[in-house]
Write a structure and sequence with these properties.
27% helix; Spore Coat Polysaccharide Biosynthesis Protein SpsA, Chain A; 243 residues; 24% strand; two-stranded antiparallel ribbon
Length: 243
């Protein structure tokens, strides 16, 4: 039996892959951030993302390139891809919101919803469930929310200031934007031509109760690959998960 929300689940997505990745040097000296390989997998971050999107019902992807775009385009041209991919390159910096709008203009179905993900996110969870959550809340935009582990040991104290416990790398008490999104078709018209949508479009939608937050399911794998340490941690975690 078909799920009642199946028709509103996106089949198209944007990957924002234009970042400099300066904190990942020397890995990013000769390639953009999404082309960095997770050690032990032999596949760049964007390869994992495209496989995940395909598993979740996506057929068409627009990759927004910037820094060392030709390295990414060459890999996409030579790889066996599970989805149809088109690349776009900003000729001038448009900011995050402008870049998203520019990429979205190249989606094959502008009148249908779409996913977006930052090019440095390595995750696995049900995008279909997130799309259903988005539809059920009548949202214009939905953000995936993660609770990353704090990289330090935490300390618990009692009311008198005595330390009662040490907790190694506990999950954050705050949820953060996990860099994965579901957007309704009208979202594109609300994006700035240039500038940052997180300072303009998102706050406006939040005031209208049209911005939803989808908490990542318990146990879902999520990591932003931002530094060399993130790469080694991801490799360790994936080995432990048997992936």
């Amino acid at each position: 039996m078909t799920h009642p929300n199946a028709a509103s689940r996106p089949t198209q997505a944007v990957i924002l892959a234009g970042g400099q990745g300066s904190r990942l040097r020397p890995y990013t000296d000769d390639r953009p951030k999404p082309m960095v390989e997770i050690p032990g997998t032999g596949i760049p971050i964007i390869g994992h993302q495209l496989a995940w999107l395909a598993e979740e019902g996506v057929t068409d992807v627009v990759v927004s390139c910037g820094h060392l775009a030709e390295v990414l385009q060459d890999w996409l041209d030579s790889a066996q891809l599970p989805v149809s991919v088109r690349t776009v390159v900003e000729t001038e910096p448009l900011g995050r919101g402008g870049g998203l709008k520019f990429a979205a203009a190249h989606l094959p179905h502008p009148d249908r919803p779409w996913y977006a993900t930052n090019g440095d996110i390595w995750t696995r969870f049900s995008l279909r469930d997130m799309a259903d959550f988005h539809t059920e809340r009548d949202a214009v935009a939905t953000l995936a929310l993660a609770r990353p582990r704090i990289p330090w040991g935490a300390v618990r104290t009692d009311g008198f200031g005595h330390i009662t416990d040490f907790i190694e790398a506990p999950p954050s008490t705050f949820e953060i934007n996990a860099g994965v999104y579901v957007f309704s078709p009208e979202f594109t018209t609300l994006l700035p031509e240039r500038g940052d949508h997180e300072r303009t479009t998102f706050p406006g939608l939040a005031r209208e109760r049209k911005l939803a937050g989808f908490p990542l399911p318990q146990g879902a794998y999520w990591r932003a690959i931002d530094t060399a340490k993130d790469l080694t941690e991801a490799a360790k975690e994936l080995a432990a998960l048997g992936r």
